[in-house]
Amino acid sequence: MKLPELRIGNLVAKVPIIQGGMAIRLSTARLAAAVANEGGIGLIAASGMPFDELRYEIKLARKLSPTGIIGINAMVAASEFAGLVRTAIEEGIDLVVAGAGFSRDMFGMGKESGTPIVPIVSSGKLARISESLGAAAVIVEGSEAGGHLGTNRSSREIVPEVLKAVKNIPVIGAGGVLDGKDIVEMLKLGANGVQMGSRFAASEECNASDELKKMYLCAKAPEDVVLIESPVGLPGQAIRNKFAASILDGTVPPPTECDRCLKHCSHKFCLIKALERAQQGDVETGLVFSGNNMRKVDEILPVKEIFRRLLAETSQID
Questions:
Q1: Do 80 and 157 reside in the same domain of the chain?
Q2: pLDDT for 88-124, tens place per residue?
Q3: Predicted model pTM
Q4: Are 177 and 184 in contact (CB under 8 A)?
Q5: CA distance 147 to 126
Q6: Does residue 251 form part of some domain?
Q7: Environment class of 292 (CB within 10 Å of its CB; exposed 0-12, middle 13-18, buried 19+)
């Protein structure tokens, strides 16, 4: 299959692949720029970043990929969500992807600046509402995805539903997309493109520690990935480790201090600090978000090689 271009507003990606925005600090400028340079859309994970750090990452991504498409991903559940979106827009970001919740206000910010707003949705109803509010596209994320989930249904089931619900905006399939076969499957369902997180988490340019990347490669059995309850009030998909096990059995220690980083938090544990620990290499007491198809990944590759293989795989499928 010859892959089509992906058009979102006035943006045209030569390869219809969006790199998932993985927090905390897994998806930074180096990864986003590498994806953009291959013709895809690179996302900087803004959640958990101070505004000055986000500005720096956006400027660095622009320097590394002067002509590529660079966006941000931000959690609506984050207390600083609106500030992160405004900061990115001020820096001239190409598009804003928003998940882990839904915000009507972001569409107004996008309309005022001309910045495409792309919400992550998990139903036809929310996709239709998003389009009516001004969404430039929607990313349809199902139960296969890593991190926070808004549904227990497969994206393969939801994509056709969303296609019937919207009229004039692109639909991007996400969740469990790891190889060329998965990409073609999504496109044959009618999706205009795909979002891929796990495959790029296991890339050389990902800002994860070597210990975290090695852990991705160890997730080989279905039972290695579990659903935990996140403090934001949504289930989250993660690799089973000591920390995830403590969440599941109710023995996870509550935080001793709170930075009020989330709009609403159960305080069962500190999400941001748990993700930071994993990013920095503590894969036992850190939270390791992962899609349930991570077992397909068996080596850490540079982004250029990932794209080469994906394009080669898709070209061999009718």
A1: yes
A2: 999 999 999 998 889 999 999 999 999 999 999 999 9
A3: 0.94
A4: no
A5: 19
A6: yes
A7: buried
